[in-house]
Fold:
Amino acid sequence: MDTETIKIKYFADIEPIAPIQNGDWIDLRAAEDVHIKKGEFRLISLGVGMKLPDGYEAHIVPRSSTYKNFKIIQSNHQAVIDNMFCGPQDCWRYPAIAMEDTVIHKNDRICQFRIMKKQPEIHFETVKELSGKSRGGFGSTGKN
Structure:
């Protein structure tokens, strides 16, 4: 398996991030105490900036327990950070909307990321028909 090196800058005194043993995603932490009222939007500092390897981007999503623990949702549902976002002030943030009044403490794990290869250059070819079998649209795999 190939190993990639990522340069990381900490913008806050938070616990260092590291890959976990039983998964491909890496947890990110709030870099500040946050009090959010129901319906409010907040960019929560994650306290890190990174220089991703050439040809890669980072995808940030909530942890599976984020809503259960903090009653927030990620406003853009998935963030994509390209490897050009690596300047001296480019601190990663988590765009959250509170569904209930909530408090998030510094070092709480609120989201996770992984790096992915960038999409290759693509070309679209217009055709009159597609050769696959029609599946029927949304929910076509059934209710269960």
